[in-house]
Sequence to fold (716 residues):
Amino acid sequence: MAQPMVGGDGAHSYAKNSSGQGRVMERAKELINEAIADKLDLKLLKIDTSSTFRVADLGCSTGPNTFIVVQNIIEAIELKLLQADRQNPSTIEFQVFFNDHPENDFNTLFKALPHSRKYFAAGVPGFFQNRLFPKSTLHIINSSYALHWLSKIPKEIVGGNSLTWNRESIRNKRFVNEVAEAYSAQFKNDIESFLNARAQELVAGGLMFILIVAVPDGIPLSQTTLGVFYDVFGSCLMDMAKMGITSEEKINSFNIPNHRPTPKELESIIKTNKYFTIERMEQLANRMSQSTFLAKCRTSAVRAVYEGVVMEHFGSEFVEPFFNHFTVKVEENASRFEKFQNPIDLFVLLKRTGDELN
Amino acid sequence: MAQPMVGGDGAHSYAKNSSGQGRVMERAKELINEAIADKLDLKLLKIDTSSTFRVADLGCSTGPNTFIVVQNIIEAIELKLLQADRQNPSTIEFQVFFNDHPENDFNTLFKALPHSRKYFAAGVPGFFQNRLFPKSTLHIINSSYALHWLSKIPKEIVGGNSLTWNRESIRNKRFVNEVAEAYSAQFKNDIESFLNARAQELVAGGLMFILIVAVPDGIPLSQTTLGVFYDVFGSCLMDMAKMGITSEEKINSFNIPNHRPTPKELESIIKTNKYFTIERMEQLANRMSQSTFLAKCRTSAVRAVYEGVVMEHFGSEFVEPFFNHFTVKVEENASRFEKFQNPIDLFVLLKRTGDELN
Fold:
């Protein structure tokens, strides 16, 4: 059942609750501006007035967020160039590469490109665990809310053994240690591949900005709102089986190729890569309060993200009843959502070292 | 009414008649290979082993022809690099930009990209009369069967005056001198813009390959098969008006933004641009005989090209009866098609001079 936005500026209002999200984006912008001002060394990058400055956004989707971030990056670089030499206005040209997997809707992305943009735009289809660009051709890479997507479901999960999980674990496989470890190992593999590919593509001194949703350190997944989300999602699937709309076998073979790391987990993976230094790692102000309203908000956001995978696995007739039921269930579990800690928005600034590639 | 392909290897067979088209593509490949072997100066291009070699295909559509041409270009360059230094195998990486207008179906293009390609691929949406790439970043540009598309209908044609054409000229406006001159002037403008944009993007010594369908020098349009095509097309439109399916006003406001130049016309436009030298200009073997079969073949090719513009102007219900009628009319006019000379496939090789940009 559709619920209208809560008006006014009370505790549950949209205006009040969306400001958290706005604060996250605002803080990410500040961190990017500071990074470009303080950590970007134009001489090290070998940028001169006739250069092309190349920026890539990995996991761009169809906009408009990617355009906002890219415009901010370019304005920060222009400001830096202006401050570096006020006498000789720079004639540097910008080229921006928008990357996402080959099934992304690039047609929509291209039609949405801002008309008055200050850069030459290109779309790059491909998986960012692989190489996407020629060596040493990028100066800045951004990736917002994309690195949690895995290249595949861990092989331990899709194997024949997976049917041996008991009923409770079908409802929420992510709480099973072996499953959590398999996802974590796949994430480690994928981030290592990602960093090695980017190390080839980024020039020495180049910067990479990563924004990712993480699980707070030291708190079991089951005691976070993300854990509650997984549990409610799984329990909804089980309800569908009870109603005869799907089967437990079908639910057991449903897996989503993503993983939310903890800050420590991500940090330790990055630190094994000698081509990058962590210049900054900051937990941004929480974008959500644990309010009931936000649980509701979350529902439509969840649908936006998961509708595709749910439809692919369970079929299109499944989608509507499932998400309707999910909305109801989230309401019922509001107090559980309010009890636990939210995931965090983690900003990581990496710098490409001068180390030559092997 | 659908007609099956004519089998066997008789005069009207597909096998016989398609060989002309194959010959054109084969010859274009030879000319590109020769150009890369003889006219590409790697030192002038400042290509060393750590460089990125950048190729752009302008007007790429959705493949697969663009992939075939690009692969051929890259293999020719690899051969040249190998011959230049057999001791030190090149580690040069290739980046290929596929360009077409923003309404092109890049999703289809991206999904069709060869999996085993030797290059990093990117799509670039935009009109090639404008800048598309940063300055001095491309080494080779290819454009096959695309440059006849104009940036717009000449303003003289869309003006209020256009209703003053008489009945015969509505049927075939292209035979009216003022109209032909307006299209020719628009083509000149567009090619000048195209060359000026490419002069900025191509490095000194960079090559550009152009393949374009041209009208033979010294023959009036009305006495070429292209003229017969225009006439039959216009007469079909008039028949539709007689049947009450459309109106003469609607036909009068129907214009297709393309122009087929003569070789001399194209040559003289290029020669006014100081940033390019014409290294070669060759009429390729005719891809079509004037046979009745080819007139039929042409019908489906015509539909592939013109269905979009016809649908946009006359509506979707118009398309099927129109092209059915067109097929019949082409048959009726077979002897006229056989009497006149076909348009020619023209290959032009341009080289970017060392002249600095103003």
Chain B is about 45% helix and 15% strand. Chain B has one domain: 19-352.
